[in-house]
What we know:
Radius of gyration: 23 Å
Order of helices and strands: EEEEHEHEEEHEEEEHEHEEHEE
Strand content: 25-35%
Number of helices: 6
Distance between the termini: 47 Å
Shape: globular
Number of strands: 17
Amino acid sequence: xxxxxxxxxxxxxxxxxxxxxxxxxxxxxxxxxxxxxxxxxxxxxxxxxxxxxxxxxxxxxxxxxxxxxxxxxxxxxxxxxxxxxxxxxxxxxxxxxxxxxxxxxxxxxxxxxxxxxxxxxxxxxxxxxxxxxxxxxxxxxxxxxxxxxxxxxxxxxxxxxxxxxxxxxxxxxxxxxxxxxxxxxxxxxxxxxxxxxxxxxxxxxxxxxxxxxxxxxxxxxxxxxxxxxxxxxxxxxxxxxxxxxxxxxxxxxxxxxxxxxxxxxxxx
Length: 268
C-alpha cells in the first residue's frame, strides 16, 4: 500500500519527508509518475507506519527487514463465499490453512474462519490484510476479530513473532551423478522462505537456494526458490532424505513446486 498524492516532488527529493498541515510526518516519497519528467504529476510515498516497521529491524542490527509472521494463509471473501456464509458485506479474508508453527495455534482460530478486523482495523481484502500485518511491531500483540462458520463473532489474541528457523536450514551442495549435482539446497522453514522471497507458509519439502554451479539444473529450468517436494513419487522430508534418495536411484522423476505451480521433470 502506498500514499498517493499530487503534491510536487522535486527531483532528488525521493526519501524526503511528506508532512501534513500540522507538520506531522505521514510518509516518505519514493516515486513520481510524470509525463513531462518535471515535478508535477502523481506522487507515491511509503506510509510512515510501514517505515517504522522497517526502521525497527535496522535499529536492532538485523541483516534484513524482519516482519511479523502469522503462519496463516488467507483468501478474499468473494461474492460466492459471502453468499454461502450469508454475509452482507463482501469484505474480510477467509482462513485457508494454519502452519503448524503459527503463533495462532491453540487460540481457537480454524480453517474457514473469516477475519473481519486486525488490531481494530477493518480488513477489506487479502492485500489489506498483508499490509496491516507488515505494519505491526514485533513487540505487539495481534488481535483478530473473526467470524466463525456458525456466524458467531469473537476475538483471538497472540504474540507477533518473527518467522521461525525450524527446521534448521542445513544448506548442502548436492554431489554425485544426478540432475541436481552442484545445486545447493536447504530445509524449508518460514525464515528460509522469507529470505528467498517465497511463500513462508509452506510446510514441506527442500528448497533450492543456488543453481549457478549446476549446468544440468540450469538446462532443466530449475530456479532458486523451487521446492523439491518428491523424488520418484516419494515425498521429500529434508535435505538428508533428498541426498539418500538421489544416491540410490538412476531414474529421476522430480516433482517441484514453484509458487502455485507443480512441475514434473523426468530425467533418465
